[in-house]
Structures are given as C-alpha cells and as structure tokens.
Design goal:
With 622 residues, the chain is α/β, with parallel strands linked by helices. It is built from 19 helices and 22 strands. It has 3 domains: 146 residues, YNR034W-A-like (Profilin-like, 3-Layer(aba) Sandwich), CATH 3.40.1840; 150 residues, Reverse transcriptase/Diguanylate cyclase domain (Alpha-Beta Plaits, 2-Layer Sandwich), CATH 3.30.70.270; 251 residues, Alpha-Beta Barrel (TIM Barrel). The strands form 4 sheets. An 8-stranded mixed beta barrel has the order 13-14-16-17-18-19-20-21, surrounded by 5 helices. Strands 2-1-5-4-3 form a 5-stranded antiparallel sheet, sandwiched between helices. It is rod-shaped.
Length: 622
Amino acid sequence: MNLSRKLFLGFIGIALLGIILFGYITYQTALETRSEELTKSTTDNAMQLASILEGSDPARVRQLLRNFQTRQQVLPYNLFIVDRQQAIIFNTLPNEIVAELTPPLLASDANHGHANLKETSLVWSSQSIPNSELTLYLLRQTEKSGFIPFLKHSGLPLVIASLILLWLAIWCAMFLSSLYRRLDQQRRELEFQKRHDSLTGLSNRNSLVEQTELRLERSLPKGECIALLIIDIKRLKEINDTLGHYAGDALLCLIAERLNSVIRENDILARIVSNEFAILLDRISEESVVATTTRIQETLSDGYEIEGHEFYLGASIGVALYPEHALDAINLIRHGEMAMYAAKRIGADITIYDETHKTSTLEQLKLVSDLRTDLENKNIQLYFQPKVNLDNGQAVSLEALARWEHPDHGYIATSRFIHIAENTGLINQLTYWVMEQALKCSQQLQQQGQSLNVAINLSMWNLQDLELVEYLQSLIDKYNVEPSRITLEITETAMMVNHKRALHTLHRLHELGIVLSIDDFGTGYSSMTYLKQLPLGEVKIDKSFIKSMHKQPDDSSMVRAIIDLAHDLGLTVVGEGVESREIAEMLRELGCDQGQGSYYADAMPFEALLGWLERFNQPTRE
C-alpha cells in the first residue's frame, strides 16, 4: 500500500475516531445536563411541597398528602417524610425500596443527590418543612443509562453533524492525498533531473559516476574488465550554429537512440557534456571492447536526416579500462576523456588510454589557446605550392597553404592545427585570412606580369558559412582579381554536413565565375556522385594513386580512368604527389593536364616563390 493511500485511510480513521469521541463527549454532556435539570427540578418541587406543609404536625401532613395524592391520582414523584427521630411518618414508595434507600439518604450530609437501585436510578432532594420537626425527602425516577432519551432528543443532530464531519474529513483526505501525490511526483521529477540529461533522458555525469562506482565495487571474473567509452560527436557545434539548436537537439536524440540500440541491457549510456556521450561496458573481454567500439563507430557514421537536410557525422572515441587504467570512477572517466582528446588530436576514430595522454591533453589545450592568439595577431604564415602544366612545363597555378610556426613546438602539422581550428570554431577566421592574403599576393603577381591562378582550400564548415560568398566577393572587388583566376578546393567530406546548404553555397560560388575543384579525388565512396552533382571545373587525383602508379598497374589504370572520365565531363585534371620526372612523364602521357608535387617545388613563402618563378617559368624546361 503506497503512502498516499495510507495517508487517505489514516485521515478517514482519525475522522471516525473524532466522530466517536465527539458523540461520547456529547452523550456525557447531555447526561450531566439532564442530571442537573432533574436535580434542580426535584429540589424545586421539594421546596414547594415543604412550603405547602409549613407548620403542619404529622397527622395533618398525612391528611394533606393523601388528599393531594387523591386529586392527582398519580404523582410525578415519590416521597417520604421522617420526624426528628428519623421515623417515617409518610411514604409513597414500596417498603422494600424504602428499607434499601432510607439508611444512606438519612446518613448523608447533602440535601440532594443520586441513588441507584437494581433496576432504577433516582434523583432525590431533602427539605426541612418550615415550623416543623419534619423532613421531606422527594425522589424522582429516571432511566439508569439515559441513552434512549439522549437518542430521542439529540440523535438526529448528532448524526447530521457526524456526516458533515465525515464529508469534510473525506474531502480533506482526498485533498491531502492529491497534494502528496503532486509533491511526490515533483520530488521524483527533481530526483530524475538531478541524475539524468533533460534532453535525451539518459544518465548524466553525476549518475554515471555513481553507477560506475557501484560496478567497480563488484569482483570481476577472470579475463573480463569494465570499459568506459567517451564519445565526442564531431561537427555538432557547427550544425547548431548553422541550423539552430532545435536541429542540434533533434540530432542528439537520434544519436542517443542509435547508441542505445548497440549496447547491452546491463551497459550504461550517459550524456556527460553537450556533444559527448559515455558508455560503460560492464563485464566484457578486451576483444569484445574493440568489436563493440568499432560497431558504435560504424553506427554513428551512417547519415542523419533533420528538417530535410542530410548529415554525416563522425566521432572520436576514447577508451579506458578497469582495472588496467584506473581503480575508481573519477579517474576512469578522466582517463577516458584524455584518450578521446588524443583521438581528436591525431584524427583517429578510436584511441585507448595510455600515460602519455596526460601530457598530451595539457599540450592540446595550450595549442588551442596559442592558435587563437596567433590568428588574432596574424602570426600565421601563408605558403604557396605551384601547379605545373604538364605539356609545356610552365607554372599555371598556385595552391595557398597555411603554415603555423609555434614558438615552442616549431611548425605544427597542417592537418593538426586545421583540425584544431575546425573543432574550436576558428576555421572561418583562418579561411578568411588565407583568402585575403592569397588574393593580395595574386594582385602583386598580376602587377608583375605573372598570370597565375590561385587555389584556396575550403573546410566543410566554410560551406555552411552564410557570409562566405559575400566576403569573397568583397575581396575580389578589393584586389581586382578575376574570379576565373580563383580555384576553391574542397574534399568529399565537405558535403557531409547539411548537404543542401553546402551545394547551394557551391552553386553561388560557381555563379561568381570561381573554379571549383575536388581535392583527393578517388578516396571517397561518393566521388562519382559529386562529379554529377557539383558545378566542378577541376579534379585533383589523390596522391595515393599517383605515387605508386609507376609500380602498380592497377593504380595506373585507375588514374587513366579518372583522367578520361574527367575530360569527358570537360574538367581539368591535376595529379598530386608528383615526386619524380618518371611520374610526371607518365601523367603527361596519360593526358593529365597539370602536376603538383615536390618534383617541381615544395610549398614556400611568397618571397621565395617570386624567385622560383623567375627561374622556373622559362620558355622550356629540361
């Protein structure tokens, strides 16, 4: 029986007890009142009768009382009269009753009271007859219990009052029971909110810590462990910034559903931060941890559709094991987070914790802060790598590449700091800076008579930027650069976030006259789809095919097929990773239009590029 029902029944029980107590008190009060009334009435009658008998001798008393009794036929009371010697001179009671009553009444110092017989209860009053030596005792009979008269006079009002009290008690009990249920529901809701995420309904960080501690207290079978997975969902912030938090929230709920579908019933799924989830795999072998983590990664990589937009998200997963990596919940979670940050830093899908991640995480935080500072202070450098026409050997285009020289760590790998910029929302600021510097250098080259195209790389998040096209148009007007001299390079992953918006942005750029290029072509599953959908002008074959084409016939065939397909679609073809004359010649024979790689030149600062162009762009190159 729940507390609400107990409260209801208890209140009704108290009400019934109150009714009984009320009835008893009322009954006792009625008895006392009736007794007082009878006593007073008897006393008054005794005084009246004594007044009538004033000054009478015993004989006259007997005569008067017999006459009075004859006229009244039935007296409403009984009486007896005694003289100074307490001898009875007149009596209306049976002799046996008088014999039983007389001794206690005559011995009493009171002038009124109650006397109880076996079947009768009497109220008596004594009164001395004035101017006489006689004493009058008047007795009035009443029912012993008085309950029947009480019911006759007070029963109906008492029943009505009891019913009203009972109705009020039931109403109050129902009100209090309902109030308790509401308060209890609010308490449960507050308790749930304290331990769960309000959006997805999953456990929160506090609940995860508590449940993890409970699991760690149990002994583990040999060969099993407890694994904690920290999952960071990539690109969620940019989706919030692009489509709003409603779309981001809907996406988080879909992610929670997918994760729930992968784990076992005894595992724990929690949302610990805005875009981070945690999964506790209980009593599992290390081999199963790897298999489960891989399955989670595959599940998350499938497309999501929100508000008519299709998204492809990635995830960085950090893994920490008990008892290998930590012996308590707090450190297990902390080490899982360190492993996750390490996975983000190196671009890995899954990383298992090791001790080096402690220092790596601190280093990562400092790099984020330093990158922000250097972007604001314009301490990033811009390098250029030429693209060469394979037919005449002349440089025809330059790819602008950002370089970051850290004061403590030297040059940071481009993939690493670009990854940092994408994950911290700095990518648009970085891209805007690269665009302006590249077009500024292009203007200087034009002024020196060098008609070279300039290529700029775009991140997938740049294509979600609503101000990108207008900003680029303002730079074109500012530096007076022909839009056809600008190439914007995108990778296949650029279309994985809000495909429709990315496609719209690319079409607007194409309408400006800008050349669009697919970078690293051939490495993604949707390469052919992009050739059909996007307004492209150029294709860059990934260097993984180019480097080994002189050794691997399959790669050479793949390169030939890409070149032929691109030419059939009217696209310019660029081969990346040209590191030798042999590869350059093979590409030229296959019909490739341009080559780019260390055989011609590595990326270099603008000042070094000017000298290189003077040496390289001669009428012929041996």
